[in-house]
Please model this.
Amino acid sequence: MKIAFFSLRPFDEINYCNEFSKKYNIDFVYTKEYPCLENLDIAQGCDGISIVPCEMTEEYIDKLYKAGVKYILCRSIGFEHLPLEYIKSKGMKVSHVTYSPNCVADYAIMLILMCLRKMNQIMVRFKTQDYSLKDKMGKDIEDCTIGVIGTGNIGSTVIKHLSGFGCKILAYNIEKDEELEKYASFTNLDTLYAQSDVITLHVASNKDTYHMINDETINKMKDGVIIINTARGTLIDSDALIKNIKNGKIGAAGLDVIERENGLYYYNKTGKVIDNDEIIMLQGFPNVIITPHTAFYTNTTVSNMVEKVFESLKLFSEDVKNPYEVI
Model:
């Protein structure tokens, strides 16, 4: 068996590929490039390909199918970048990965604390030797109400970890979790919007959550609310976000994802003109902390992501139940 890895990072992922190739007795080839029509030929003779979120058109699928590829093994939790119905029509299978929620949950809490304590302002001014206190006064987290939208693996971990800080926690989810009611009060979205000093997003990206943070919902929030997003950029209408940061309705934001990040994040754009008004605007605000989709990025997570690719191919080839199977 063999896997063709696309956009493989030689500075971290390759070591795990070598380790798990031996463990599962599965060969692999790789390219550092994202998949395109010109490089799909490396998948010839491979049982599966492994990709991160990227362009994957029906034309790509056709070429991979003709090359004998049967499995598309995502190295990500998300798989919305894939034409699933078309892949299914070809009789091909898709898997994704899971990993410990701690990395993203703790990153979200870090962004909450940094926004509350105005760390972007403090660090930028420190580098210019401005050691004054003006406009640096923060807010104690235990005096805040934190609203957590989405109580899946990551959202529930955020709630449990936040419970040690002494803050009031509100939670919204389609279904309540009795265990989490020890730490948080479940409520409806309108109440969460109205009462939260900080709102952190932990829901999937789909048609129901697209632009769930917009002008209408922002107007329901407290003046000076802090918005945290470590989930998916499409949850927030970026134009509404920028407008409401400008007018002061939103007091701060901590963003590991943005709406129009495709073609930008994970590329080195040093010295290049960035054709992305969203990130240019957001980077210019002193009360916005923005990071390039790195909440997941720990050694444990990368190891888990790579191993589950090899594990999925093994399970698929043995025709046994694969807990990571999408279709």
Q: What stands out?
A: Residues 102-290 form a domain with the Rossmann fold fold (CATH 3.40.50.720).
